[in-house]
Write a structure and sequence with these properties.
By secondary structure, the chain is mainly α. The chain has nine helices and two strands. It has two domains: 82 residues; 94 residues, no CATH class.
Length: 213
C-alpha cells in the first residue's frame, strides 16, 4: 500500500491524483491528434469536478491554463487560448500596502469615523438628528461586540462628540436601544434608518453620499 506522502507531489491538489495521472499519460502520447483528443477529454473531467465554478468568466480558459500547469508546461497540444508561460505563475504579486491612518477607537473601526466626518456637514434639522442617533446606536453596538456586559449611553455620547470634534452632540436625556436588543440585531442600515428609498438601484438621497476615503 502506498501512502500519499510516498507519491509524487500534486501540482494542483483540487483536481486530485487521477487527473494528474491522466495529464502525465497525455504527455506520453506520440500522435498529436490523439494527444489533442485526450487533452479535451481531460478538460471535460476537470470541469465536472468543479461545477460550482462554471459561472466564473473565462472558466474554460482557466481549465486549459491549469491543464498546462499540471503538466509542468510540457504538454504540447492545440489549446484554443494563448499558452501561458511558467514565468507568469512564478512571478510574485506586488505587495498591497496596508491602509494607513490612525483610528481613535479601534473597536468602532474606520468606516464609522468616515461616516461621522460626512455627518458633520449636514445642516441642523430632523435629518441630522436621526443620523446622530443612528451613528450613536452603531457605536454602542460596536462597543458591545468587544464588551458583552453593558455600556452607558453617556459613554457613547461622549465618544461621538470626541470623534466628531464636538460637531455631533446628543441630548443627555435621550436613550439608545438596550444592550441586549442590540446584540440580537444584525448590522444597522443607515440609509434605511434615514428613510432613504432606492430608485433604479441607486439611493435617492439629495445630501452627501457616504463614501470611504
Amino acid at each position: 500500500m502506498n501512502y500519499n506522502t510516498q507519491l509524487p507531489h500534486l501540482i494542483i491538489s483540487e483536481y486530485g491524483r487521477n487527473v494528474q495521472s491522466m495529464v502525465e499519460h497525455c504527455c506520453t502520447i506520440e500522435s498529436r491528434d490523439d494527444r489533442n483528443r485526450c487533452a479535451r477529454a481531460i478538460i471535460q473531467v476537470m470541469g465536472q469536478l468543479n461545477p460550482h465554478l462554471r459561472d466564473i468568466p473565462d472558466f474554460t480558459h482557466k481549465l486549459w491554463d491549469h491543464l498546462l500547469v499540471i503538466s509542468k508546461f510540457k504538454l504540447d497540444v492545440d489549446s484554443p487560448y494563448p499558452k501561458p508561460s511558467a514565468e507568469t505563475f512564478e512571478t510574485k504579486p506586488k505587495n498591497v500596502p496596508y491602509p494607513k491612518g490612525k483610528i481613535k477607537y479601534r473597536h468602532y473601526g474606520k468606516i464609522i469615523e468616515d461616516i461621522i466626518e460626512k455627518a458633520k456637514d449636514f445642516k441642523e434639522g430632523e435629518e441630522k438628528d436621526v443620523l446622530k442617533r443612528v451613528v450613536a446606536t452603531q457605536l454602542k453596538k460596536s462597543y458591545l461586540t468587544w464588551n458583552k456586559d453593558t455600556v452607558l449611553d453617556e459613554v457613547i455620547f461622549k465618544h461621538l462628540a470626541e470623534l466628531s470634534a464636538g460637531a455631533l452632540k446628543m441630548d443627555e436625556s435621550e436613550k439608545l436601544s438596550d444592550a441586549s436588543d442590540l446584540i440580537k440585531r444584525g448590522p444597522l442600515n443607515i440609509n434605511t434608518s434615514l428613510g432613504v428609498k432606492k430608485q433604479h438601484g441607486k439611493n435617492n438621497f439629495k445630501h452627501k453620499k457616504f463614501k470611504r476615503k
